[in-house]
From TrEMBL, chain A:
UniProt cross-references to SUPFAM superfamilies, sorted A to Z: Acetyl-CoA synthetase-like
Alphabetized Pfam families for the sequence: AMP-binding
GO MF, any single term: ATP binding
Gene Ontology cellular component annotations, sorted alphabetically: membrane
Official protein name in the record: Long-chain fatty acid--CoA ligase
Keywords for this protein: ATP-binding, Ligase, Nucleotide-binding
Database matches in PANTHER family: AMP-BINDING DOMAIN-CONTAINING PROTEIN-RELATED (PTHR43272:SF33), LONG-CHAIN-FATTY-ACID--COA LIGASE (PTHR43272)
AMP-dependent synthetase/ligase domain: residues covered: 15-435
Organism (species): Bradyrhizobium hipponense
TrEMBL record, chain B:
Keywords recorded for this protein, A-Z: ATP-binding, Nucleotide-binding, Transport
Protein name: ABC transporter ATP-binding protein
UniProt source species: Bradyrhizobium hipponense
Matching SUPFAM superfamilies: P-loop containing nucleoside triphosphate hydrolases
ABC transporter domain sequence ranges: 11-259
Role, per record: Involved in beta-(1-->2)glucan export. Transmembrane domains (TMD) form a pore in the inner membrane and the ATP-binding domain (NBD) is responsible for energy generation.
Lineage: Bacteria, Pseudomonadati, Pseudomonadota, Alphaproteobacteria, Hyphomicrobiales
Keyword ATP-binding: yes
Length: 656, 261
């Protein structure tokens, strides 16, 4: 079986793969409209030449090399080549603006940068005065870079060719590279992943080679991943999810990483490749479903009815059939028919036909959304993890799937709940420390060696699975002492297709309020169907009918809160729809698209004041950053809507 | 931006006049386009810019004057001869085959380069297949170059305007022209689309070394992009030179700001 075993570094595993899976595909990449394939043996050869080339350029053990770009084979090979030389790769989010990029590159003492294209090279050079250690920038796509000063700039292709030529000329160099690989130890820092910075500046999480391999070996076994599997490598390189799910698991199991043609073609590429292992954040699954639903609305009546009928069948029997519970024969027959004419064709359109194991994580997933995918036969599961754990803390085993839990502890992970309600863990993949930040490292650990997740949660009594409520520090109380979990409310709101983002306030306040973003795709489609004219996102967001529609959704959330005991007092009393979409470029979301509540409260201070002082509208003007870094101002008058709360908090009790 | 290396003249227009009945669209216009440069033709509405392009690619025949392209002087030429000779163009109003995919539209730009006849093409076998693969490869390079992979198979009628313009540029590039004529490549685009298009025009010029003549209204774009600018007003050339020279020219300022004639 293909697992980590006695191998303690990725370069050693790569050598094993070259021998064991030599002619099996390791990478695919769609280029000029055709899927190009590299086998493990080819990749090992290229990486060896690349490492030799980088060595000749001066990359030493312990140096850091930053990688900025999207999922392209040459950038993955940069990871491999750097690790072969015992240098430390540091992937950086490719959509980071120059300033964020400068922070990470400077903090990581990056000596080399591997950049995807002209855009990234421009960003690096624009901040190069802040990067005293920077020696060379290597790049993948040559386009537009002809006129650049090539003293500090060299194409990855040329580095590889130079290395290949040098290896051919000198056997000593080859021995030297092999020696670097042989000397690699499990305790080496394999990679530094910078956290997205939900709270303050991002921190460099150092992970050891042994830790990465042990953790990923456990989950490769857990999900039976083999060299027959295929993953679509489309998640951001700098995110722990990509490094774990694709890179680490890919090398350990020997499966193929397929790199999409470009960020815009992921949908088509997924259809063409047909991955067997798939991860998407809840947002990704939701966008997929929204697109399907919109297109079904436009389909012929007979197709719409057929779709509706069989989705009903799927809802009734799908989950039971997937988990192997008893189902009446008639149900099985109807489900089989539905599979033939609806579910399988639908999965095929979405590129999910061959998926054996799919995961989602990062945010809570809507129960309806989760149930939809499972009911049509997609083995979708949840996991809970973080960069400091090298991803997995918990994950759901096949057959024990619930939409509101994240599953029991992953293999070899030890979890406990602190008295404060905080989830703490010890795991094989847990991090070594934050790069150049002893103080923060100490802060993140308990004295007995557990990592503090900062999330509040509890073990569900019925299932024994972990449930996450919110960030521990965000769980607050209203002025009257009622418990209030903002994220929990925000997630409930976001489960409605019309609501894209929600930010909820209430800590130390008299009541709970919500700032909402409408989903431009879903609401625009609704507007089109109802003949509602609008000129811009801002106009649509402020439309009274849109407010009416969203008010119904918010009232629905209040109703569901009223059913529970703990949070019934935290119902939403007032809400408004923001005039612009929250955006990571403006600092309102993190790069992983989580809302930054405190920052938003500061930025929209006039709205926060207005919503709590009883006004029915407020003026706001905000500075926005365009994609090219220029700034502009958006001004708007935003309306505020009141809502009735239900149950306990209603002044007129039902008993009266 | 890099200026062209040579002063070799690719196209010379000498004393061209064009009249439609009593309307004199062009009056004794002369200018040249050097190999490898980006040459802008600007002017207020009705100045004769599009007429000038139409004369260059043989769509209109001038009443007087001569045009020398790649050393050959000619008075009359048909548009297909122009494209065979290495002149490609895009149009002010997008002129694509709306029902065909972006890919097929760009493939259409290769038609003149295909040697196999209709029957061979229909058989799609042997040499015809090899030829199609070769042309498809060139087209894929253009798709990659213009970053339109995601819309390869989408019928162009369903595409937003900015992308249609890009597909049209792709079709013109597929002809591997020596001279590329762009008629208002950025008309009706928003700022971001304009910036994208500017980058593509510069890249085409740099990467393929294609000589480009463009008509454009957006002065900022013209001044940034072009090596030399010719200014027409009421069918007469009133200025010619580098963007900086033209900007200072009193006749140009008058023409744009409107002075009593």
């Amino acid at each position: 079986m293909a697992v980590g075993g006695s191998f303690d570094t990725f370069p050693k595993l790569l050598a094993r793969n070259a021998a064991q899976f030599s002619s099996r595909p390791a990478f695919r990449h769609k280029d000029l409209g055709i899927w190009q394939t590299w086998t493990w043996a080819q990749v090992a050869g290229i990486v060896r030449a690349y490492a030799a080339g980088l060595h000749r350029l001066g990359l030493q053990p312990g140096d850091t090399i930053a990688i900025v770009g999207s999922n392209r084979p040459k950038l993955y090979w940069t990871l491999m080549a750097a690790q072969a030389l015992r240098a430390i790769p540091v992937p950086v989010y490719s959509d980071a603006v120059a300033d964020e990029l400068a922070y990470v590159l400077a903090h990581a003492d990056a000596k080399f940068v591997a950049a995807q294209d002209q855009e990234q090279v421009d960003k690096v050079f624009s901040v190069s005065d802040r990067l005293p250690h920077l020696r060379k920038v290597v790049y993948d796509e040559p386009r537009g870079l002809d006129d650049y000063d090539h003293d500090r700039l060299i194409a990855i292709h040329d580095v590889i060719e130079d290395g290949r030529a040098a290896l051919a000329a000198s056997a000593a160099l080859g021995r030297q590279i092999d020696e670097f690989i042989r000397q690699g130890e499990g305790s080496d820092i394999s990679i530094i992943l910078y956290t997205s910075g939900t709270t303050g500046a991002s921190k460099g999480v150092m992970l050891s080679a042994r830790g990465c391999i042990d953790a990923a070996t456990d989950t490769v076994r857990f999900d039976n991943l083999t060299d027959k599997d295929v993953a679509l490598a489309y998640l951001p390189l700098a995110w722990v999810g990509d490094h774990y799910l694709n890179y680490a698991q890919g090398i350990i199991a020997g499966f193929c990483m397929a790199c999409p043609e470009s960020g815009a073609t992921i949908e088509q590429d997924r259809r063409e490749i047909g991955p067997t292992f798939y991860f998407a954040p809840p947002r990704g699954f939701e966008a997929m479903l929204t697109r399907v639903m919109i297109r079904i609305e436009d389909a012929a009546a007979i197709k719409r009815r057929m779709f509706g009928y069989f989705l009903g069948i799927a809802r009734r029997y799908g989950e039971s059939i997937l988990t192997g519970k008893p189902v009446p024969l008639s149900g099985r027959l109807l489900y089989a028919l539905g599979r033939l004419i609806v579910y399988e064709p639908l999965k095929n359109v979405l590129g999910l036909s061959r998926v054996r194991v799919a995961y989602t994580a990062g945010e809570a997933i809507g129960p309806d959304l989760f149930a939809f995918y499972r009911s049509i036969g997609l083995n979708l599961k949840q996991l809970y993890g973080q960069t400091e754990a090298f991803l997995y803390v918990t994950c759901q085993p096949d057959g024990e799937i619930y939409s509101d839990t994240v599953g029991p502890a992953a293999p070899n992970v030890d979890i406990r709940i602190a008295e404060t309600g905080e989830v703490q863990f010890r795991s094989p993949g847990m991090f070594v420390g934050y790069f150049k930040d002893q103080a923060k490292t100490a802060e993140a650990m308990t004295s007995d060696g557990y990592v503090k997740t900062g999330d509040a949660g509890f073990f569900d009594e019925k299932t024994g699975h972990l449930k996450i409520i919110d960030r521990a520090k965000d769980v607050g109380r209203l002025a009257d002492g009622t418990m209030f979990a903002p994220k929990y409310l925000e997630n409930k709101l976001k489960f409605f297709p019309n609501i894209k983002e929600a930010v909820v306030y209430g800590d130390s306040r008299d009541f709970v309020c919500a700032f909402l973003n409408i989903d431009p795709v879903a609401v625009a489609n609704w507007a089109e169907r109802n003949n509602i004219a609008y000129g811009s996102y801002q106009e649509l967001a402020g439309h009274p009918l849109v407010y009416d529609m969203v008010a119904k959704d918010v009232a629905e959330v209040n109703r569901s809160l009223a059913e529970g005991k703990v949070l019934a007092g935290a119902q939403i009393r007032r809400f408004l729809i923001l005039h612009k979409e929250l955006d990571a470029d403006d600092g309102e979301l993190t790069r992983t698209q989580k809302v930054r509540r405190g920052f938003i409260a500061e930025r929209y201070a006039p709205l926060v004041t207005a919503i709590y002082d009883g006004s029915h509208e407020a003026d706001i003007s905000t500075e926005v950053t365009f994609e090219d870094g220029r700034k502009g101002v958006i001004a708007a008058r935003v309306k505020i809507r009141d809502l009735q709360t239900i149950g306990a908090t209603e002044p007129l009790g039902k008993a009266a | 931006m890099r200026a062209p290396d040579t002063n070799e003249i690719l196209l010379q227009v000498e004393g061209v006049s064009l009249a439609f009945g009593g309307v004199k669209a062009l009056r004794d216009v002369s200018f040249d386009i050097r190999k490898g440069e980006i040459r802008a033709i600007i002017g207020p509405n009705g100045a004769g810019k599009t007429s000038m392009l139409n004369v260059i690619n043989g769509f209109y025949h001038p009443n007087h004057g001569a045009i020398t392209f790649k050393g050959r002087t000619r008075a009359q030429m048909q548009p297909f001869e122009a494209s065979r000779g290495g002149i490609a163009r895009t149009f002010q109003n997008v002129a694509l085959f709306k029902g065909m995919s972006a890919l097929d539209n760009i493939m259409a730009g290769r038609t003149l380069k295909m040697r196999r006849g209709l029957l061979w093409q229909m058989l799609r076998y042997g040499p015809a297949l090899a030829e199609e693969i070769e042309h498809r490869h060139r087209v894929e390079e253009i798709i990659d170059f213009l970053e339109i992979e995601a819309i390869r198979k989408v019928p162009v009628a369903r595409l937003p305007y900015g992308l249609q313009k890009r597909v049209e540029l792709g079709r013109a590039l597929a002809m591997e022209p020596d001279l590329l004529l762009l008629d208002e490549p950025m008309a009706g685009m928003n700022l971001e689309e304009k910036e994208d298009m500017s980058r593509f025009i510069i890249d085409v010029n740099n990467h393929y070394g294609t000589t480009i003549a463009l008509i454009e209204h957006d002065m900022a774009v013209v001044m940034d992009l072009s090596h030399r600018v010719a200014v027409l007003d009421h069918g007469v050339k009133i200025a010619d030179g580098t963007p900086d020279e033209v900007k200072e020219n009193q006749a140009v300022i008058d023409a744009y700001l409107g002075v009593a004639h």
